[in-house]
Amino acid sequence: MVYAIVRAGGRQEKVSVGDTIVINRVAGEAGDSVQFAPVLLVDGDKVTSSQEELEKVTVTGEIVEALRGPKVRILKYKNKTGYKKRQGHRQELTRLTITGIA
């Protein structure tokens, strides 16, 4: 089995061909192709981690959709002062499918 560890959306993700992952928003429309730089490549028993060999490898994915994550509610409160503040946040995400490791 071939898989790679790629840096995507501020994190590292373990991907193989056909996987669907959700990462932080990347620019592009549905159907666009995105390339990632691998950090590690595993091909059966062979593990590739040297920078020179990894420069030859590209991991490509196709954007499926843009979506938003669950709402996170932020509450700030200070006792006895009457101060309270409520805020919400929804992270913008992208779902994509890995199409190739070459």
TrEMBL record:
Keywords: Ribonucleoprotein, Ribosomal protein, RNA-binding, rRNA-binding. The keyword Translocase does not apply. Signal peptide: none annotated. InterPro entries: bL21-like, bL21-like_sf, Ribosomal_bL21, Ribosomal_bL21_CS. The keyword Isomerase does not apply. One of its GO terms (molecular function) is structural constituent of ribosome. PROSITE patterns: RIBOSOMAL_L21 (PS01169). GO terms for biological process: translation. SUPFAM superfamilies: L21p-like. Pfam families: Ribosomal_L21p (PF00829). GO terms for cellular component: cytoplasm; ribonucleoprotein complex; ribosome. Belongs to the bacterial ribosomal protein bL21 family. This protein binds to 23S rRNA in the presence of protein L20. NCBIfam families: L21. Part of the 50S ribosomal subunit. Contacts protein L20. This is Large ribosomal subunit protein bL21.
